[in-house]
Automatic annotation (TrEMBL):
<dbReference type="Pfam" id="PF22725">
    <property type="entry name" value="GFO_IDH_MocA_C3"/>
</dbReference>
<feature type="domain" description="GFO/IDH/MocA-like oxidoreductase">
    <location>
        <begin position="132"/>
        <end position="257"/>
    </location>
</feature>
<dbReference type="InterPro" id="IPR055170">
    <property type="entry name" value="GFO_IDH_MocA-like_dom"/>
</dbReference>
<dbReference type="InterPro" id="IPR000683">
    <property type="entry name" value="Gfo/Idh/MocA-like_OxRdtase_N"/>
</dbReference>
<dbReference type="GO" id="GO:0000166">
    <property type="term" value="F:nucleotide binding"/>
</dbReference>
<dbReference type="InterPro" id="IPR008354">
    <property type="entry name" value="Glc-Fru_OxRdtase_bac"/>
</dbReference>
<feature type="domain" description="Gfo/Idh/MocA-like oxidoreductase N-terminal">
    <location>
        <begin position="4"/>
        <end position="123"/>
    </location>
</feature>
<dbReference type="InterPro" id="IPR051450">
    <property type="entry name" value="Gfo/Idh/MocA_Oxidoreductases"/>
</dbReference>
<protein>
    <submittedName>
        <fullName>Gfo/Idh/MocA family oxidoreductase</fullName>
    </submittedName>
</protein>
<dbReference type="Pfam" id="PF01408">
    <property type="entry name" value="GFO_IDH_MocA"/>
</dbReference>
<dbReference type="InterPro" id="IPR036291">
    <property type="entry name" value="NAD(P)-bd_dom_sf"/>
</dbReference>
Amino acid sequence: MSKLKVAVVGCGSIARYRHLPEYAANDQVELVAVCDIVEDRAKEMAEQYGAKAYTDYKTMLAEAEVDIVSVCTPNYLHASVSIDALNAGKHVLCEKPMATSEEDALAMIEAAKNNNKKLMIAHNQRFVPSHVKARELIENGEIGKIYGFRTAFGHPGPEGWSIDGKDSWFFRKEEAFIGAMGDLGVHKTDLMRYLLGEEFVEVGAFVESGAKENSTVDDNAVCVLKSESGIVGTLAASWAYQKEDNSTVIYGEKGVLRLEDDPEYSLIAHYRNGETKNYDLGKIQSNDEGGQNSTRVIENFVNSIVNDTEPPINGEEGMKSLKVVIAALKSSETKQIVQF
């Protein structure tokens, strides 16, 4: 079979560290086009990966022969670029959060259906080995009924790794829509939905600013979530942590699972009978690690196209995770518990 042709829109850090190298490593695809409004960035990535550089994605969609488009733009452009690419007959992999409103997310889903194309949202936490194993243990009933959880994703902030540093779009509300809750919190809403295998129905949240200067978005948030079966837990998302924390603890009737909560073992299961199982499944991918390992996002997306199967995180899944974040914002603004 001939290789699928790929274009990447946006040549910032997420494209450089994740999408571009992972497409380049995949023998089922060929990178043919890159696009960025900053011409030097587009040219640099084009030269590095043997692709053609564009500064206007609409021109790229009209001129370049591509099968796949990766959307790595600022958040406020996710929906419009994705919809235009889907309407142009391309499969789309979009970075998270998938959109800045439920209406835009629905429009993206509709565009994928109308054009019979794949739409996947790049929630890479689902593919972390410790998370995959934890879901397996939960599904197998190893820790029994789930009572509660706590999960966190925090680091010092995007200025440490964003291509624009302190001047990054991440800190501008008109471009980012939401700060740490959109950057990190949506990862964890998606992860907990995946691990628990059910939806959240209520949220109470404090979504605050104060850790970052010259920022118009939130940078520190704590939420209390309740699932449809009554599981309750906390979710923290922060750009104010000096050391990265990407941990999750799940409390069940038969035991406790600790995910990415120990420096040596990526998953630890403590059982009520006193038994402990340590799983060494490799370190979680981090911007601090240096040489990046595959997130498996591109691999899973490409396989869904090649095999004509549903992407593991389709538009509907992306929208459900986005809705939790939007509800958290509403809760923080109204000082009330929000049902959704």
